[in-house]
Design brief:
There is one protein chain. The protein has five helices and eight strands; from the N terminus they run αββββαβαβαββα. The longest helix has 21 residues. The chain has a six-stranded mixed beta sheet with strand order 1-8-7-4-5-6. A two-stranded antiparallel ribbon has the order 2-3. The protein is α/β, with parallel strands linked by helices. The chain starts with a helix and ends with a helix.
């Protein structure tokens, strides 16, 4: 019985250590091939040219962090000549048909000029070791050197919002 408990505890600690290592920041990431809204292959724009603000969104929770995103858009808190923002729709976890999600995203880009790409098979979350992003609005910052310097999955509290703003302001 003691051996079994010891083994379970050891596996839990190893799993925790691997999870912590996967989330250590900053860490190098690569430009991943995703898709544009027409399902054609695309690379992440401005890679290596600008610092990137990336919204990786599950279509089931598009309003998660809505007030905060509206705040940073309206105030320009993270805008600057060295930073570009865009969205990537996590199609793999969507319960809606991909063509419907693409049409909604296309209508939004027509309205606000935003750049939106699609991830049909967890390319980003796998390549960048983000873990489970289902039902989450993920906010990331990648610097010009291709390092993931900030990531948050899910709803942001005030402290996390401030942490994001501070990280983004360093990249402006």
């Amino acid at each position: 019985m003691k051996l079994r408990t010891l083994l379970l505890l050891t596996f839990a600690l190893v799993g925790f250590a691997l999870s912590a290592e996967a989330q250590a920041l900053p860490r190098k990431v690569r430009n991943v091939e995703v898709q544009d809204l027409d399902a054609k292959k695309a690379r992440l724009p401005w890679w290596g040219e600008k610092n990137l603000l990336i919204f990786y969104v599950d279509p089931e929770v598009p309003k998660q962090n809505h007030e905060f995103i509206t705040y940073i858009e309206e105030t320009g808190r993270v805008q600057g000549p060295n930073i570009e923002g865009f969205g990537i729709v996590n199609l793999k976890d969507a319960i809606y048909p991909n063509d419907v999600v693409r049409k909604i995203a296309d209508a939004r880009t027509a309205k606000n000029g935003a750049t939106i790409l699609c991830d049909p098979d967890h390319y980003i979350s796998s390549a960048w070791r983000l873990g489970d992003c289902n039902n989450m609005f993920v906010i990331m910052l990648v610097n010009k050197a291709g390092e993931l310097v900030y990531v948050h999955k899910g709803e942001m509290n005030e402290a996390e919002q401030q942490k994001f703003i501070e990280a983004a302001e360093k990249l402006r």
